[in-house]
Design goal:
This protein is of the alpha+beta class and 152 residues long. Helix content is 32%, strand content 39%. The protein has a single domain (4-151), classed as Electron Transport, Fmn-binding Protein, Chain A (Pnp Oxidase, Chain A), CATH 2.30.110.10. It has a 7-stranded antiparallel sheet with strand order 2-1-5-6-7-4-3.
């Protein structure tokens, strides 16, 4: 008999679709004492990786430079039967220079500002690169749930 956990797990395609439809991401890093530091921000997805930008001097950037372990969460639903989400544990890489930096920043800007023409997109990305860094989350463990599957 299948466990309830197996019934509500999302397929890899469902995880991608869910993440692509989400706007906000909860990010957990570890501060110097090992305590969780939580923030919420906008993000983008590229292949299996999660991308977000932050100030290079932000607490989450300082935490990730010290300890690259990270967890992120997207969730949705108001009633128990509607709850769904994706939790990812992984390792973060901070990208703050070079052609890859500009390319990744453009991915984030485009995802969170749909409809920008290419010139405006490029100028926004370059302006953001003056104070911000890109964080690439490389998943090591993905946990998903969709309680709507229980009523199916």
């Amino acid at each position: 008999m299948p466990k309830q956990r197996d019934k509500i797990r999302m397929s890899p395609e469902e995880v991608e679709t869910f993440l692509d439809s989400a706007k906000s991401l909860i990010v957990a890093t570890l501060d110097g004492s090992g305590a969780p530091h939580l923030t919420v921000l906008w993000f983008a997805r590229q292949d299996a990786n999660i991308l977000f930008e932050t100030y290079g001097s932000s607490q989450k950037a300082l935490n990730l430079r010290r300890d690259p372990r990270v967890a992120v969460l997207c969730e949705d639903g108001e009633a128990y039967a509607e709850l769904r989400g994706v939790s990812i544990q992984g390792t973060a890489e901070i990208v703050d220079s070079g052609p890859e930096f500009e390319r990744l920043m453009s991915v984030i800007v485009q995802r969170n500002n749909p409809g920008l023409d290419p010139a405006t997109l490029a100028s926004h990305a370059v302006a953001m690169m003056q104070k911000l860094v890109v964080v690439v989350v490389r998943p090591e463990k993905v946990i998903s749930w969709d309680h709507r599957k229980l009523s199916a």
